[in-house]
UniProtKB/TrEMBL annotation:
Residues 171-311 form the MoaB/Mog domain. Its cofactor is Mg(2+). Residues 128-138 have a biased composition (Basic and acidic residues). Its EC number is 2.10.1.1. SUPFAM superfamilies: MoeA C-terminal domain-like, MoeA N-terminal region -like, Molybdenum cofactor biosynthesis proteins. It catalyses: adenylyl-molybdopterin + molybdate = Mo-molybdopterin + AMP + H(+). This is Molybdopterin molybdenumtransferase. Pathway: Cofactor biosynthesis; molybdopterin biosynthesis. The keyword Metal-binding applies. Belongs to the MoeA family.
Length: 396
């Protein structure tokens, strides 16, 4: 068993994902929210597609006063303004007639019978075709996550459907006979803190996830059956929790052998979370083995599953922003140390209650500061941050 350095493990997980990127599919615009562009978004028309009035007023030609010869509303096709000394009433969003020299705002005009007078502003009060983008121009690259803003942009430049990478389908299997699924923990028994938690993280990383399954009985047969069942149910990725070590009832490794899996990563030189693994199964499917200790499971999720899912969705590899530490964080010898931090006044501070079996520190953290192997990070040092995949507003 060769352990992989943490940054190499992240890169290997991303490569594995890109090698099995989800096939592109065309979906109606409203269904694309949260998915990923499979091809660049190229505008199908000039934006705007026609000269468009920015104001309500009068489209005028030649010197004042102008005789009113018509009216053009948004949606109309405007006939040309043929003669000097004429104007048409024009609405915001309406097509500007050819021959228009100025648009005079209604509130800055004087109307007397069928004559209009006033001083137009010097700058054009309309948008010219192609001002925002020219037909055929690339607006967004492939790999862009589709947000409501992207959907709006696609609609404005003519799309009914977009080509996207569908969400990877993930399943969560919880291992551990000691786990309770309701009520308070008691003697020898702990509450399952991963089944209720992991699906939410996976969704924030772009996966589609059903209800967690488990606790799966601590036998090899039950493990193999549960994993097979999850893949047969259509999962591209199965996340298991617990059983990653080689204790008397840790059956994950033997189950992987029985299923013909090959390791992408088998243990990582990181603390906490080192027994994490990522395995590839035939057909471009994956199993992520998250350690049973709850914080370690989340470390595995952000270390291996996040880059894998980015690759499967055709997204760029997640980049790590840099943070400045407000307090020192010791290293963990030859391992990468991922230390939970909260951000306060622009500085990152380690939080208490960060044992690998604990979630109290994690629940109030923004992410993990990365302390490189063989180093200690001093107060004021700039280090990479692996953000927890929180939504805006969830980060404290
Ligand atoms: N001899 C050694 N033993 C262990 C080592 C080691 O190096 N040598 N490493 C420890 C580390 S590090 C971790 S992490 C764990 C990983 O163990 P497993 O992935 O095999 O997980 P389990 O043994 O099933 O459980 C570990 C721990 O976590 C609790 N647990 C499990 N699942 C859940 C859950 N869904 N919700 C809440 N808590 C859970 C479980 O009760 C155990 O306390 O191995 C160490 N051992
Ligand atoms: O991965 Mo274990 O301590 O690293 O929880």
């Amino acid at each position: 068993m060769t352990s992989t350095p943490w940054d190499e493990a992240r890169a290997a997980a991303y490569r594995a994902g890109t090698g099995a990127v989800r096939p592109a599919a065309s979906v109606p615009l409203p269904d694309a929210d949260g998915l990923t562009l499979a091809s660049p978004l190229v505008t199908l028309t000039d934006l705007p597609a026609f000269p468009t009035s920015s104001v309500d007023g009068w489209a005028v030609r030649g010197p004042a006063p102008w005789r009113i010869v018509g009216r053009v509303l948004a949606g109309d096709t405007a006939p040309p303004l043929g003669a000097d000394g004429t104007c048409v009433e024009i609405a915001t969003g309406a097509m500007v007639p050819a021959g228009t020299e100025h648009i005079l705002r209604v509130e800055e005009s004087q109307v007397d019978g069928d004559l209009v007078a006033g001083q137009p502003r010097p700058n054009p009060e309309w948008r010219t075709p192609g001002e925002e983008a020219s037909r055929g121009e690339e607006l967004l690259p492939a790999g862009t996550p589709v947000t409501p803003g992207v959907i709006g942009l696609a609609a404005s430049c003519g799309y009914d459907e977009v080509s996207v990478r569908p969400a990877p389908r993930a399943a969560v299997l919880v291992f551990g006979d000691e786990l309770l699924t309701s009520g308070p923990p008691g003697v020898g028994r702990v509450r399952d803190a991963l089944g209720p938690q992991i699906p939410g993280w996976l969704r924030r990383l772009g996966a589609e996830v059903g209800a967690p399954v488990g606790p799966v009985k601590d036998t090899l047969d039950a493990h193999v059956d549960a994993i097979r069942g999850a893949f047969d149910g259509g999962a591209d990725l199965v996340c298991t929790t617990g059983g990653t070590m080689h204790g008397p009832v840790d059956h994950l490794h033997p189950a992987l052998a029985e299923l013909g899996a090959s390791y992408v990563v088998n243990t990582v030189e990181v603390r906490p979370g080192f027994p994490m693994l990522l395995a590839a199964l035939p057909g471009g499917r994956f199993l992520a083995g998250l350690p049973g200790n709850p914080q370690s499971a989340v470390v595995a999720l952000i270390s291996l599953v996040a880059p894998l899912l980015a690759g499967l969705q055709g997204r760029p590899a997640p980049e790590l922003p840099s943070v400045t530490l407000g307090a020192p964080i010791p290293g963990r010898g030859s391992y990468t140390h991922l230390a939970l931090v909260r951000i306060d006044g622009g500085l990152a501070y380690p939080v208490p209650h960060v044992g690998s079996a604990m979630l109290r520190g994690l629940a109030r953290s923004a992410g993990f500061a990365v302390v490189a192997p063989g180093t200690n990070a001093a107060e004021g040092a700039a280090v990479p941050l692996v953000p927890l995949p929180l939504l805006d507003g969830e980060r404290q």
